Amino acid sequence: MTDGPIEFVQFMQLFDRLGDGWVALVVIGLFAGFLVRFATSNQRSIGLWSTALFGVAGAVLGVAVAGALGIGLPGPGSRFLAALAGSFALSLLGGLFRRKEKPGT
């Protein structure tokens, strides 16, 4: 990627240099997890470690589902979108199983 704001281009070049391995998946998952956390959680009720783990797990889930469906993920942008979708799906599942707090406590 060579067009766009310089910060975005450098960011995408960093992801591109990471390649397709596990390290890239972990880094992309961390970013996806934090984006999903800030987009979905009003009270920020989960910690940073949980956010990171959900992000990485969501990245693995998203890439695995895309592979199972035969969807190729050729670049860092498409892998990031798959990680974001997987992290969002895990966030929704976590919201379904979260304990409800009693009013007034």
What structural class do you assign from the helix and strand content?
Answer: mainly alpha
User: In DSSP terms, counting alpha (H) and pi (I) runs of 4 or more, how many helices?
Assistant: 4
Number of domains: 1
Shape: globular
Number of strands: 0
User: Helical percent range?
Assistant: over 70%
- In round numbers, the mean pLDDT is 78
User: What integer value in Å does the Rg equal?
Assistant: 15 Å
- Uncertain spans, ≥5 residues at pLDDT below 50? none
Give the distance, in angstroms, between the N- and C-terminal Cα atoms.
51 Å
User: How much of the polypeptide forms β-strand, as a percent range?
Assistant: under 5%
Q: Give the H and E element order.
A: HHHH
Report the biggest beta sheet as strand number plus sense, adding barrel if it closes: none
Transmembrane segments: 21-40, 52-73, 79-97
Keywords: Membrane, Transmembrane, Transmembrane helix
Protein name: GlsB/YeaQ/YmgE family stress response membrane protein
Organism: Cognatiluteimonas sedimenti
